[in-house]
Amino acid sequence: MTTQGPVAARGAAVQGRAAAPDADAVPPEASPVRRRAPIGRLLRAEVRWIFRRPRTLAVLGLLVLLPVITGVAVDLTLDGATAAPVDAGPGGAPGAGGGPPIFVTMATSAFVLPLGSLMTLLMLLLPLTVAMAAGDALAGEQSHGALRGWLLAPVSRGRLLLVKTVGVLVVALVAAGLVVTSGLVTGFLLAGTDGLVSMSGTELSVGGVLWRLAVAVAWATIYLMAVGAVALAISASTEHPMLVVVGVLGGLIVSVVLMQIPALDWLHPYLLPSSLTSLVDLIRDPVSFDGLVEGAFRAVCYLVIGLSVAYARLTTRDG
Amino acid sequence: MTAARAGAAVPEARNGSGTALAARTRGLRKVYRGTVAVDGVDLEVPEGAVVGMLGPNGSGKTTTIRMLLGLVEPTEGEIELLGMPMPRSADRVLPHVGALVEGPGFHPFLSGRENLQRLAAAEPLLSGRELDGAVSAALERVGLADAARRKYRAYSLGMKQRLGLASALLVPRRLVVLDEPTNGLDPAGTQEVRRIIAELQANGVTVLVSSHLLAEVEATCTHVVVLNQGVVVAQGALDDLLESGSPTLFVSTPDGASAVDALRDHRIPARLAPDGVRVDITTTAPATVIETLVRAGARVDEARRERAGLEDAFARLTHDVGELVGELDPDEPELVR
User: Fold this and answer.
1) Considering only CB atoms, which chain A residues are within 8 Å of B118?
2) Is the confidence at residue B269, as pLDDT, over 50?
3) Is the dihedral of CA A121, A124, A127, A130 positive or negative?
4) CA distance A12 to chain B (A)
5) Which pLDDT belongs to residue B309?
6) Cβ <8 Å between B69 and A150
7) Could you tell me the CA-to-CA distances from A33 to A36, B83, B91, B93, B96 in Å, in that order?
8) Ordered domains of chain B (ranges, CATH)
9) Chain center to CA of A316
10) Distance between CA A141 and CA B128 in Å, rounded?
11) DSSP-assigned letter for residue B151
12) Domain membership flag for residue A16
């Protein structure tokens, strides 16, 4: 039933058009060459996007505020009743960083306030921040249909994961850095350079405090990246960013519960939050690095496993 | 309808040279958890053509497009895009392909311009200096220049769709794939999409556009692929597809009902139409039809051959037209097959 005539004519017309490309058309005979968008440009676009997101800004603002609130509250309490033992640290986590004797005397110092805040916030709020960023990075983008735009550009899935991981790393670093900076500034304003004393009783120079805090931020970033890698693995497997946050926080809470059970002490070295207590070692003089190194090693294990799973999920998932 | 069956019309284009097809699939199949979404699709998109992909919702249009673009791994089958295998050559091919798939995907808290800048940053063919210019040009082209600074959240459905179109046009492309580009657009917006498609074609760009709007495809496309339930039921040049339908004779008569009865008595397929009858003249000569009518005493005022519209062709090709009721004229009498 088909007449071949019109087809041939139509085909010829099409050929004719294609053979005479206009100025802004790519010559059809040019064979496509492998080209990629520079990675720096992708990273810049990613970081800009992260810090334009309202909820990122909200949670970062909260992280800046909490050490200030803690410092002011403790300061007022100390002024009121110097003798009363005070639980320091935002959220008042007992035992998170030494006992009352230290915190009573130097809770508002420019050394203990930032470190105490960091230790307390590392339990839930900082992991939450990182999990949120990781959830938005893949699952959130996917649910908006925005991930497709980059996949079609194209950005290979390996590079996509690299960019997203760096994005989460930036959030972890900025979040930990903000907490410590905010605590440090608040401490200086409230107590000046008073109370810069180690748990071992030695006086610390401002420089000694600063490098200890820098180590604390770096260590916290590694710890948070372990959380972030697991979050990215979940994020690569779902379209619901909320699921990522719930999964990560749920995992951390379960880990902490398991750590309370002595019968499971063989399991404790494998649980990520086991590392948290080692941050206290930075208050000692000289600093004992054993626990910090072990914690960093544990975090790197989580990081490698998390990113491997994320890569496997991302490369096999439908875009 | 076997005449327009897959491939019948296109070998002409393929015989020309190896690069004459902008996209081609062989035995493409996709199974989602036991559900066959696409089955044995042999798609051929001639270079320089505007190919309309037509089918009811759930007929496999979007799945086919997603596989073409390497977003989804096919269960079986081969894909060639711009002469290179997909998804293996995605990094070489995709920079030359613009696509709007499954509606626009943007971030609500960024402005239209910022959203496009984010996408432009990932375009391999744009150098750093060209980014801003390319974004402005794309916004201008889809008529969003004035709304570029507004948050995407505040955009209307039509503006969102335009922004999606702009992202496909950031770079001069060799192939542009548009999935339901006129969704949510008002008539003026629809006209604009048609204009953009015509412009692309004039520049030698191949366009693959999926739609469930028949008129849309009829107005803009040179070629048509009809999908139904994951299978290609027809593809080829639009003109051929329209020709390939059973030829029809429209007989204007005031005695419609008795005319249909008389024709059916003589085993001539016919159906009632407003002001007359439509007669299938695939196996019967028009003269015989008129003779039969006159003998049966029906008054014949006028008789003329009709070229079937795409709507008729489509209804013929897809048995299940339930999905398209909205697009089909509800007064249209049922087709006699």
Assistant:
1) 45, 48-49, 149
2) yes
3) negative
4) 8
5) 65
6) no
7) 10, 13, 9, 8, 10
8) 2-243 (3.40.50.300), 246-307 (3.30.70.790)
9) 25
10) 24
11) B
12) no
Best mutation target, A14, A29, A159, to test chain B (most B CBs within 10 A):
A14
**Residue A67: domain span:** 39-316
> Can you read off the two tokens belonging to residue B45?
């998109």
Alpha carbon of B299: minimum distance to chain A alpha carbons (Å): 32
User: Do B244 and A1 make contact, defined as CB atoms within 8 angstroms?
Assistant: yes
Q: Are the Cβ atoms of B71 and A38 closer than 8 angstroms?
A: no
- What chain A residue is nearest to B12 in terms of C-alpha separation? A8
Residue B88 to residue B70: CA distance in whole angstroms: 8
Residue A250 lies in a domain: yes
> Over pLDDT 90: what percentage of chain B?
22
Q: A98: which strand partners?
A: A96
Q: What is the pTM of this model?
A: 0.77
The answer to whether residues A129 and A227 touch, using CB atoms and an 8 Å cutoff, is no
Q: Would the pLDDT of B150 be above 80?
A: yes
Residue of chain A minimizing CA distance to B1: A1
Residues 6+ apart with CB under 8 A from A56: A50, A132, A133, A136, A171
Instruction: Count CA within 13 A, CB hemisphere, residue B117.
Output: 19
Q: Is residue A295 part of a domain?
A: yes
Interface A-B: count of C-beta contacts within 8 A: 172
Distance from CA of A150 to the nearest CA of B (A): 6
Instruction: Name which of A166, A178, A152 is nearest A48 in CA terms.
Output: A166
Go through A210-223 and write b for each residue having 16 or more CB atoms within 10 A of its CB, e for each that does not.
eebbebbbebbbbb
Where are the alpha helices (H) located in chain B, listed in sequence order? 11-16, 61-68, 90-93, 112-120, 131-141, 157-168, 187-202, 214-220, 238-244, 256-265, 286-295, 310-317
Q: What is the Cα–Cα distance from A290 to B24, expressed in whole angstroms?
A: 61
The reported pLDDT for the residue numbered B316 is 67
Give a yes or no: residue A98 inside a domain: yes
For each of chain A's 319 residues, which pLDDT tens digit applies? 333 444 333 333 333 333 333 334 444 444 445 578 889 999 999 999 999 999 999 999 999 999 999 888 888 877 655 444 444 444 444 444 444 444 445 677 888 889 999 999 999 999 999 999 999 999 999 988 889 999 998 899 999 999 999 999 999 999 999 999 999 999 888 887 777 877 777 888 888 889 999 999 999 999 999 999 999 999 999 999 999 999 999 999 999 999 999 999 899 889 999 888 888 888 887 888 888 999 999 999 999 999 999 999 999 887 6
Q: Which among A59, A240, A45, A225 is positioned nearest to A141, based on CA atoms?
A: A240
Mention every residue, 6+ apart, whose C-beta is less than 8 A from residue A144.
B105, B106, B107, B108
